[in-house]
Amino acid sequence: MIAELASSPLDGPLVMRLLVIFVSAAVTENILLTRFLGMCPFLSISRQMRSAFGMGLAVVFVTTCTVVINWALYAYVLKPLEPYGLPAESLKLILFIVVIAAFVQFMEMAIERISIRLYFALGIFLPLITVNCAILGASLFMVTHVSGRQFGGWDALLYGFGAGVGWFIAIMLLAGVRSRIKEDSVPAALRGPGITLIVAGIMAMAFVIFQGMIKL
Amino acid sequence: MKQTPRDKAILERMAPGVLCAEGFLGDDPRDLSEIIAADTAAVEAAGLTHEQIARSLAAAMKTAMAELGRPAAISEHVAAVWREGMGRIPSPWTGDGVFPKGELGLTDTRTGRTLTLTPLSVHLIAAHGFYQGRGSRYRLEPHDIIAMFELT
Amino acid sequence: MVQPLQPWLIVLLAAGISCAVTTVLAALLIVAERYMVNYGTCTIDVNDGARQLEIDGGDTLLGSLKTEGIFIPSACGGRGTCSYCKVKVLEGGGALLPTEEPLLTAEEIADDLRVSCQIKVRNDLKILIPEELFAVRQYRGVVERISDLTYDIKELRIRLIEPDTLTFVGGQYIQLEAPAYGDNPEPVYRAYSMSNPPSDDQAVETIVRLVPGGICTTWVFQHLSEGDEVTLNGPYGDFRLSDSNREMIWIAGGSGMSPFWSMIRYMAEADIERKTTYFFGAVQRRDLFLLDELTELARKLPWFEFIPALSAPGEHDAWTGQTGLITEIVDRHISDGRELEGYLCGSAGMIEAAHDLLRTKGLTDDRVFYDKFN
């Protein structure tokens, strides 16, 4: 345990440590292409770059905020009570979902009030996000990092941001590829979802290369 | 699968009672993209494009509308009647604009087969390859249009 | 090392934490809703101080105005499909919304027009609306009579209950509300020209032609019966007799009869002896209606001529009147139209064809009138 911690890339200076967390969350542990979470909007909202951009931004924002809130909930409430026999592992699933749902509701209200333009550009994607498993996934993976070692609020922030950016990169890549595919040249049976899944699979294989680079 | 807000808005406007009493999808069990894909395949199999089909329909519509309800001959074996209506109807695709109400009845005098369509029908075929859902009043089968206008 | 708690205490603790978190979140949401969705009282300045409305913000502009008794014409009932409810917003409208863009042309955007069912009242507003809209009210009425004029045209007479009087000018229209029925989930509003003369101000009469698949006409034809209560609002529109004394050409088809049936009876009652020729076009004999009434009026009024025409009379119609397209009939009757005024009502295609013809006869566009709602 101690030996593993000693060799962890998290031991460097703070900036280095945060950078490592960010890159690892965004690239090596890309929530979409290595974990296959959030596939549903990934496939259906990647037809146009513009929609993909809006959805991606919304995911970045919500993931960052909910990971931090859920980190606080876990680190300050659930984990300290675990020694008393509290089933933190089961409870976190329920509570994280509630937090995400409430946060999305709150954001929808706030954005409509603050910027009606932004509300229409991004707000319409917000309700879809409540049920995006990538968001919940980011919070749950964050917990697996907290349980083994010190993982502070800044770490959680960078982790959540990284996970969101990873999802954003993936959907933008897919939308870019899809907008360049000439549907005519695809065999009829593979048009639409078929070719999209193949593209996503090839992208996932490409991301496997990053796997060995950093290990949290 | 989740839909984009735009797809959702289009489907909402196609529902019965939103833009017209019966809606645009009839009792077709397929979803919108399947309907469009199947009709597109049928049109392509005939070596045609949606634009070519829409052009024939639009020409017939123009000829018949100018007759203000009087029966018109489109070709040797196609008779047309324009039944006027008051008002205009918007397209389910927002931003497409509005189209005059009223309908065109086309009859193939050799076979007695009929087609019923509206100015909006022609637009939906040209712009979206959408021939409406089966069971809808204005559903058009691509091969029926092709047969009537002898497009192949 | 701490001791694990009793199992029942753990259950209680887990439940307590879940409840506490949910309660805190719910409380936060309620507080947020109270403060963020509440826009306080907003003032809407209509027509440069003509009316000052104090309303609770948060509703759409269309809805807020309706609550204050100002009715903007809207066919879809505020669902953002018909784009009729455009209003000029001079101040406080904020940025154009993506839901409005497809409904407005570039000139309309430059002219500060906004779709009033899409924008919310979030702050003080200054708006400009046509003066006539101040007179528009919502009416409750009861269907006194539905009768068949032809196989697909009905005449509808609604006696007003509350308010019981509607002051209007011949040629104006009302919007009839078709309530939710069958598959139709929400009320829609459709415009119908009034066919009764303005002196008959305790009722609304209109002529309705069945539109296949039409939400409102299907309701009128299949669901509405005498004695039913209905809701309508009006009067709208600036289609009316001009102030000049020029000779008039009226051209109509189908339910386009409505405004002229109102106008001619008004002119007969008020002894407005202004030379008028009324061309009414139909396809067959079965599409004609009010023939006897109008022929009788033409016989009594020396300044009024009624010319019905059939474009394709049937074999059994025994038609001895004019035959041809209505535009062809008008073409035959008028040689020089430079001193005439043209009034048109009918389908979009008929209006376009008739307008084109009148242009060739020398009628300038400012002397040709028709309803914009079509």
What are the SSEs and their pairings?
The complex is a heterotrimer of chains A (216), B (152) and C (374).
Chain A (H helix, E strand, L loop, with lengths): L1 H6 L6 H15 L10 H6 L4 H33 L6 H27 L1 H6 L4 H4 L3 H16 L4 H28 L12 H16 L8
Helix pairs in contact in A: 2-9, 4-5, 4-8, 4-9, 5-8, 8-9, 9-10
Chain B lengths: L4 H10 L17 H14 L4 H16 L6 E4 L2 E13 L7 E11 L5 E4 L1 H10 L13 H8 L3
Antiparallel strand pairs in B: 1-2, 2-3, 3-4
Helix pairs in contact in B: 3-4
Chain C lengths: L6 H30 L4 E6 L4 E6 L4 H7 L18 E6 L14 H5 L2 E3 L9 E4 L8 E12 L4 E10 L10 E6 L9 E6 L9 E7 L5 H8 L6 E8 L10 E7 L3 H14 L5 E7 L8 H10 L3 E7 L11 E2 L2 H8 L6 E6 L2 H13 L7 E3 L4
Parallel strand pairs in C: 1-5, 12-13, 12-16, 13-14, 14-15, 16-17
Antiparallel strand pairs in C: 1-2, 3-4, 3-5, 6-7, 6-11, 7-10, 8-9, 8-11
Helix pairs in contact in C: 7-8
Main location (chain A): membrane
Subcellular location (chain A): Endomembrane system
Pfam family, one (chain A): Rnf-Nqr
Describe it:
The complex is a heterotrimer of chains A (216), B (152) and C (374). Chain A has one domain (14-210). Chain A is built from ten helices and no strands. Chain A has helices at 2-7, 14-28, 39-44, 49-81, 88-114, 116-121, 126-129, 133-148, 153-180, 193-208. In chain A, α2 (14-28) packs parallel to α9 (153-180), α5 crosses α8 (133-148) and α8 runs antiparallel to α9 (153-180). Chain B has one domain. In chain B, a hairpin with a 2-residue loop joins β1 and β2 (78-90). Chain B contains five helices and four strands; from the N terminus they run αααββββαα. In chain B, 38% of the residues lie in helices and 21% in strands. Chain B has a four-stranded antiparallel sheet. The longest helix of chain B is centred in the middle third of the chain and has 16 residues, at 50-65. Helices cover 25% and strands 28% of the residues of chain C. Chain C has helices at 7-36, 61-67, 106-110, 215-222, 257-270, 291-300, 326-333, 348-360, and strands at 41-46, 51-56, 86-91, 113-115, 125-128, 137-148, 153-162, 173-178, 188-193, 203-209, 229-236, 247-253, 276-282, 304-310, 322-323, 340-345, 368-370. In chain C, the strands form three sheets. In chain C, strands 9-8-11-6-7-10 form a six-stranded antiparallel sheet. In chain C, β12, α5 (257-270) and β13 form a beta-alpha-beta unit. In chain C, α7 (326-333) packs parallel to α8. The longest helix of chain C is centred in the first third of the chain and has 30 residues, at 7-36. The interface between B and C is large, with 35 and 46 residues.
